[in-house]
C-alpha cells in the first residue's frame, strides 16, 4: 500500500531563532514559543488574505474580459488590477494565458484557398475588362 507523500519541512526564522516546521509533524509546531507562534499566525493570516485578494483579482479580470467587447485595452486591464490589488506570479501567468486565449478566439480567420481563388478570379476579370475597353 503506497504511503501518502510527506509535506515539505519549512524552516522559519523568528527573532533570530530558526524552527523547522512540518504539517506532518505536530511536535515541531509544539516547540514554538507562544509569542513566536502568535507572530507566525499573523504572518500566515496576511499571506492568506493576499492569496484571496489575488484570486479575486484574477476572477474579476477574467469576468471583465468575457463581459466586455473584444476591444479590451491593456489600460483597462491594468486599471482593473490596480483597483483589486497585486497579482502573484502564478496568478499573472494564468491571467495572461486567459487573455491570449480570448484574443485568439476574437481574431479573424486567415485567407482560405477559396478566398484566394476568388480574389485572383475577380482581379483577372477586371484586368480582362480593362484590356477590352481600352
Notes on the structure:
The protein has helices at residues 26-30, 34-67, 74-84, 89-106, 113-133; strands spanning 10-14, 17-21. By secondary structure, the chain is mostly helical. The chain has a domain at 49-133. Helix 2 packs antiparallel against helix 3 and helix 2 (34-67) runs parallel beside helix 4.
Specify the oligomeric state.
single chain
Strand order of the largest sheet: 1-2
SSE ordering: EEHHHHH
Alpha-carbon Rg, integer: 29 Å
Q: Tally the beta strands.
A: 2
Shape annotation? rod-shaped
Report the uncertain regions. none
Give a concise summary.
With 134 residues, this protein is mainly α. The chain is 66% helix and 7% strand.
Topology, element by element:
Layout: E1 10-14, E2 17-21, H1 26-30, H2 34-67, H3 74-84, H4 89-106, H5 113-133
Antiparallel strand pairs: 1-2
Helix pairs in contact: 2-3, 2-4
Properties at a glance:
5 helices; two-stranded antiparallel ribbon; 134 residues; rod-shaped; single chain; mainly alpha
Amino acid at each position: 500500500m503506497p504511503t501518502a507523500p510527506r509535506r515539505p519541512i519549512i524552516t522559519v526564522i523568528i527573532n533570530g531563532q530558526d524552527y523547522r516546521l512540518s504539517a506532518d509533524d505536530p511536535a515541531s509546531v509544539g516547540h514554538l514559543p507562544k509569542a513566536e507562534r502568535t507572530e507566525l499566525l499573523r504572518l500566515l493570516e496576511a499571506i492568506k488574505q493576499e492569496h484571496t485578494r489575488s484570486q479575486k483579482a484574477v476572477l474579476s479580470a477574467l469576468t471583465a474580459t468575457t463581459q466586455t467587447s473584444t476591444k479590451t485595452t491593456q489600460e483597462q486591464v491594468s486599471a482593473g488590477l490596480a483597483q483589486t490589488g497585486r497579482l502573484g506570479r502564478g496568478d499573472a501567468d494564468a491571467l495572461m494565458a486567459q487573455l491570449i486565449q480570448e484574443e485568439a478566439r476574437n481574431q479573424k480567420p486567415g485567407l482560405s484557398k477559396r478566398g484566394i481563388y476568388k480574389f485572383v478570379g475577380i482581379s483577372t476579370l477586371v484586368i480582362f475588362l480593362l484590356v477590352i475597353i481600352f
